[in-house]
Structures are given as structure tokens and as C-alpha cells.
Design brief:
By secondary structure, this protein is an all-alpha fold. The chain is built from 12 helices and 2 strands. The chain has a two-stranded antiparallel ribbon with strand order 1-2. The chain is globular, with a radius of gyration of 20 Å.
Length: 211
């Protein structure tokens, strides 16, 4: 910790340098999967502890998952502006933020935020009109629908891979890809099928947890 503090100061308080040191460290990159020696350890950084991502990150992740290709840069720039202190309070009191534990900032204490997973959060991601609206208005799904009208030979495997990267930040396994392609083959339109995949991926533990 002292080394990291000194390095942060000597590099002119460069946040990119700080983040790079943290995410490239052995401690940060340890697996979340426990073994016979660290299954009960939650204090000594012998493994990563799965935890739910904060409310704001859930919302931002949903926005990025459904954004059109031309919208992604605007979404990233908006995230960058908020990361350096220009966080809009427009969503602070909304039902979605409350469900995922964003504090009202009524008191000056980190304990006000709740990062524990709840059944209500699962119900929200599965059924809330906000999630449905995001999918219905998805720029990416509209792009797929427009492309489907002009090009019947769309590479579906590439779209499946993109859906996984947009939501859980990894390519699908062969089994996942095969199952997704079978689903796409049985729906009325490609955009409808990809919307189903996005909804399913958003409702996975992998989307909602930081591992």
C-alpha cells in the first residue's frame, strides 16, 4: 500500500497509472474459485470474493449492452465524465437505483450503500419495464434488424460472440454458442432472437457479479 501511494504521488496522481498497477497485480487477478486451503478466507486476498457490482455499474452495463455501434463511443465518454466527478444525480432517487442499493446520501457514511444481492434485484432484471424498454429501444438490435433486411447471409456466430462480449465481457464457450445458434434458428427474426439472448445474459450471475 505504501509503495502504491508513493508511486501514485510520483506519477503526478495519474489515475490511469494507478488502475494499471492494480489490475495487473497478482492479487487482483486471482481466481474467485476457492480451493481446499482458502475456501473460508475473506480477509487475506488469497482469492477473489464474488460480489455484486454497484447500482451505477449495473445501469451502465445495461446501457452498453444494448447501445448501437454509433452510440457506444458516446456511452463510454459519458462514463468517463462521471468517473472524474461529474456524476449526474438524475438517477439517484429512482426505483432502479434503490433496488440495487444506491444510497440516498442522507448521511456521510459508506455504510449507507447496500451491495448485497436480493431477490428483488433478480425480479427487476427479469420483469421491470425499464429493462424491457432498454431492449425495445436497443440501437444494436435495430442495426441487426436493418441488416437482416438487406443481407440474408449474416454471420450469426459473430453476432452471438458480440452479445457475450457486450454483457459478460468474454466469448461464449462452444456449448453456449451452439445453444445460442439453435435458438436463433427457431425464432421469427434474428433481432428478436438476439434480444432474447441479451435478456438471458443480463439475468446471469456473471453479468451482475464482480468476480
Amino acid at each position: 500500500m505504501y509503495w502504491l501511494t508513493a508511486g501514485f504521488v510520483s506519477h503526478g496522481y495519474d489515475m490511469r497509472w494507478l488502475h494499471r498497477q492494480i489490475v495487473s497485480s497478482n492479487t487482483y487477478q486471482r481466481s474467485w474459485k476457492p480451493n481446499e486451503t482458502n475456501g473460508q478466507d475473506r480477509r487475506n486476498f488469497s482469492r477473489s470474493i464474488p460480489r455484486r457490482i454497484p447500482a451505477e455499474v449495473v445501469y451502465d452495463g445495461l446501457k452498453q449492452a444494448v447501445a448501437g455501434s454509433q452510440q457506444l463511443e458516446d456511452v463510454r465518454n459519458d462514463l468517463a465524465r462521471r468517473a472524474i466527478g461529474h456524476l449526474s444525480m438524475r438517477l439517484a432517487g429512482t426505483y432502479a437505483m434503490h433496488v440495487f442499493g444506491k444510497p440516498d446520501r442522507a448521511v456521510n457514511c459508506d455504510c449507507e450503500r447496500v451491495n448485497q444481492p436480493t431477490l428483488l434485484q433478480s425480479v427487476f432484471l427479469q420483469n421491470d419495464p425499464l429493462v424491457e424498454q432498454r431492449l425495445d429501444e436497443s440501437g444494436w438490435l435495430r442495426e441487426i434488424a436493418a441488416l437482416e433486411e438487406t443481407d440474408k447471409s449474416i454471420e450469426r456466430a459473430r453476432i452471438v460472440r458480440t452479445a457475450w462480449l457486450r454483457t459478460v465481457n468474454r466469448p461464449p464457450t462452444p456449448e453456449e454458442a451452439d445453444r445460442a445458434l439453435r435458438h436463433l434458428a427457431g425464432v421469427n427474426s434474428l433481432s428478436e432472437g438476439v434480444g432474447d439472448l441479451l435478456w438471458a445474459l443480463i439475468n446471469t450471475k456473471e453479468f451482475i457479479l464482480n468476480r
